[in-house]
Amino acid sequence: RGPMDALPGEASCPICREYFRDPVSIHCGHHFCRSCIERCWEWPTTGFACPRCRDTAPERSLRPSRELARVLEIARRLSRGEALRAGEKEEEEEEGCQRHREPLEVFCKEDGALLCAICRESRAHRAHTVLPVPEVVREYQEQIQAGLQTLKDDRDKLLEFREAEMRRNWEFLESTEAERQRILSRFQGLRLSLEELSRRLLARLGDLESDIAKVQEENVTSLTEEISRLDSRVQELEEKCRQPARTFLQVPRRSRREENFRLPLSPLPELEKKIHHFRKENVLLEETLRSFQDILVFELPEKMTVTLDPSTAHPQLLVAPDGSSVSWDSAWDPPGDGDGPQPGPGAGTDPPGDEPQPGPGAGTDPSVLGREAVTAGRRCWDVQVAPEGSWALGVARTPGSAGGELWSMGLCQGQFWALTSLERIPLFPVRAPRRVRVALDYDRGQVAFFDADERSLIFAFPAASFEGQSVRPWFLVWGEGSRI
Asked: Domain range for residue 271?
């Protein structure tokens, strides 16, 4: 029995007993048709077992066998026998040159055509490069092999690159998981530390309360005993005063005089010192917790990009085409009565040189709204302000700066203010901010302003009332060089 007789058995799928179709290898190394093994593994119960060796794997693994597929193609050709190719060669030779009925022995490289000896000597091909067919075939095969090797090298590089990328992706996933665990651990540790600190402070406070109760009891007991003694003495002396003169005068003189009375020392000042010391120790802790809360208010909101809405801008404001900035137009000439277009809602009519009084009820404010509206959640945005002129920024409850309500802060005539529709509160920041962060917590009704560079709180409105209406960013600029 020759090798060709054994080939069909070796190149056949153990399941369907036919030549492999789309061969794949599994975990144990055996090969099967993809469709055959998928049918076998369609309803696994206790893992994925090899139909041939019964080796079981917990997970399904199918790896394409491209090399085996190529070998099978060669096997199919071989199984048809060498006579077929010989017949094909004879058929090609019998075809020969259709014009001269001669064998095609040479190849013209310029025209890319097979030629017979007569065509070779014709005027059309005499000046061309003509080579014997085997030599050309060998040359082209070498070129194809070179190109094939290049493709294989490129494929291998891509495979290596893919493996490297997968390793890096897994490393990134491991890094993010490690970061997640680190954050959870830190916050868990912080929570436990705060709980422990709270328990310790409450325990100290409980001890202080016990001391106060104990001192109060002892003090009241001591004072009660002293009062009882004095009552007894008073009663004794009163009885002696009611005795006859002869008996009364026989009392020694020293017993007639009582010792000077002195109030006992009170323990309350000492308790007051303990309470004051306890409160003093907690001041630093309270300031630390307050700073931590400010950082949370600064970091927790989702940062959003605000685009200015030119349709809400005062006529004397210049809004950038992309809506990223607004500045004061010192060259603006307000129209006279009946001349030109009249300012719309929110347009100002203040005479030049008058400082505006920011407030949503004042339609003269040189202000502009942002396009974005907030109706829920936490949001924040950073605003860069110029040191010249006056400016204000914050949020306005729609319908806008004319008729709505405002929560803002800004610089007016060199003084910082917190501004609402009802009041102006003077502020005294440590330094003039260059970037201001507006932090809005819609659900809690909180509007806070931070120095974005220093990450420090400037002012916060703790209890704004939005009444379920949308809130939009609000900006005001006034004076030469004023810009946001």
From this structure: 267-299
